[in-house]
């Protein structure tokens, strides 16, 4: 073998890896403040079901045992709960893992991965780690534009990612438009519908993607326990897909990719239907309330169907999104900057508890008045 690097230089990763900007998660601390209000990561306002916490704790005596590598009980529970075929479900360590696995399995150097310009950042990151080229399709009114996605498809396209609803914009694509997107794709392109926030949506024209997965081999629906189920720290997500895609995922995932406590907590969380209803009802009250209050302060709030909103601040340096971020942080309120999503004038704010929402509004009123 010919040495291509100077002796003593570090091993080189595959081409493209060093061009990946690492994903920066929401902050969880503010200097000098003990009790922070965390509204930076779209975590659930009400916290997990007590039943999920109990199931997690009950696993403590058994942590010397490997988990069930097939997540069988969890897949069966998901299948019963959603009326699906358990054989078409593959669980992952968060839906992030499933995004990465699908890209690793279907995409290689020279291929293209299409996503929407303000779509979830893990899509371009996953594409680049596979040596592929992420292609961002333009949006209309901060909403996915199906025609632009279709126009971005070339012979090199292997995957299209559609976050529905989308994080961070909060907007969604109707079932009719998703069907139109699918109908316009060649069968060789995998359509991945990432429905991480599906449970929060109550719109007649919305569908998380089950019907499309049932009728087409090239569609995957991704779901997560990190949002309405409030189990982000457990890292638990799942894919519903055709048997051929499930077979591929089961070949590329590591044998024990979902830990035992996460599986147990997931089964218990699914059974606690009342906890999910409470979380949805909470969001149904405080999302519109927060939107109205901020609009009343003269800010622009993008209409959202998720448990978060993006808020546009004025351009003046003393009032802009960066200044608002710093001001909120100084009061212990953590939000998310949107520069990485090409939306530097906006901040993303998660819907928290009633008290948290009232505090954000009060602090922003003060920020805009001074
Ligand atoms: C659209 C979208 N997809 C996927 C994820 C990742 O979720 P998980 O915690 O299941 O990895 C997130 C997390 O914020 C998200 O917003």
Q: What would your notes on this structure say?
A:
It is built from twelve helices and 13 strands. The chain is of the alpha/beta class and 370 residues long. The strands form three sheets. Strands 2-8-7-6-5-3-4 form a seven-stranded mixed sheet, sandwiched between helices. It has a four-stranded antiparallel sheet with strand order 9-10-13-12, with helices on one face. The radius of gyration is 21 Å and the shape is globular. The mean pLDDT is 95. The structure holds pyridoxal-5'-phosphate (PLP). Residues 42, 94-96, 120, 163, 167, 194, 196, 224, 226, 232, 237 line the site of pyridoxal-5'-phosphate.
Q: Rough shape?
A: globular
The percentage helix is 25-40%
As residue ranges, the low-confidence spans are none
Number of strands: 13
Strand order of the largest sheet: 2-8-7-6-5-3-4
Which value, in Å, is the CA radius of gyration? Answer: 21 Å
Largest sheet: 7 strands, mixed
Order of helices and strands: EHHEHEHEHEHEHEEHHHEEHEEEH
Intertermini distance: 67 Å
Oligomer: single chain
Structural class comes to alpha/beta
Individual helix count: 12
Give the names of the bound compounds: pyridoxal-5'-phosphate
Q: In what range is the share of β-strand residues?
A: 5-15%
What's the overall average pLDDT, rounded? 95
């Amino acid at each position: 073998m010919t040495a291509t690097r100077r002796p003593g230089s570090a091993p080189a990763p595959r081409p493209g890896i060093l061009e990946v900007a690492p994903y920066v998660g929401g902050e969880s601390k503010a200097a000098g403040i003990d009790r922070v209000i965390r509204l930076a990561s779209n975590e659930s306002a009400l916290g997990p079901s007590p039943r999920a916490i109990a199931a997690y704790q009950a696993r403590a005596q058994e942590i010397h045992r490997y988990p069930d590598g097939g997540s069988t009980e969890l897949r069966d529970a998901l299948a019963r709960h959603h009326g699906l075929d358990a054989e078409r479900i593959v669980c992952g360590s968060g839906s992030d893992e499933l995004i990465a696995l699908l890209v690793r399995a279907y995409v290689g150097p020279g291929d293209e991965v299409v996503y929407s310009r303000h779509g979830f950042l893990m899509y371009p990151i996953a594409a680049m780690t596979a040596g592929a080229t992420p292609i961002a399709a333009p949006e209309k009114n901060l909403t996915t534009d199906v025609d632009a996605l279709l126009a971005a498809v070339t012979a090199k396209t292997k995957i299209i990612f559609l976050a529905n609803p989308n994080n961070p914009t909060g907007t969604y694509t109707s079932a009719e438009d998703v069907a139109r997107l699918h109908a316009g794709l060649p069968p060789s392109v995998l359509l991945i519908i990432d429905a991480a926030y599906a449970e929060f949506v109550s719109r007649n024209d919305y569908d998380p993607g089950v019907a499309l997965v049932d009728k087409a081999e090239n569609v995957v629906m991704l779901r997560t326990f990190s949002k309405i189920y409030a189990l982000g720290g457990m890292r638990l997500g799942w894919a519903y897909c055709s048997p051929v895609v499930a077979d591929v995922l089961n070949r590329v995932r590591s044998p024990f990719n979902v830990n035992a406590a996460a599986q147990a907590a997931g089964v218990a969380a699914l059974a606690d239907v009342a906890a999910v209803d409470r979380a949805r009802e909470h969001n149904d009250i405080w999302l519109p309330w927060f939107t109205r209050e901020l609009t009343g302060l003269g800010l622009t709030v993008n209409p959202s169907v998720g448990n978060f909103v993006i808020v546009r601040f004025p351009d003046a340096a003393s009032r802009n999104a960066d200044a608002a971020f710093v001001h909120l942080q100084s009061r212990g309120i953590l939000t998310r900057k949107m520069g990485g999503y090409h939306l530097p004038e906006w901040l993303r704010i998660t819907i928290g508890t009633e008290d948290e929402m009232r505090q954000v509004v009060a602090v922003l009123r003060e920020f805009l008045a001074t």
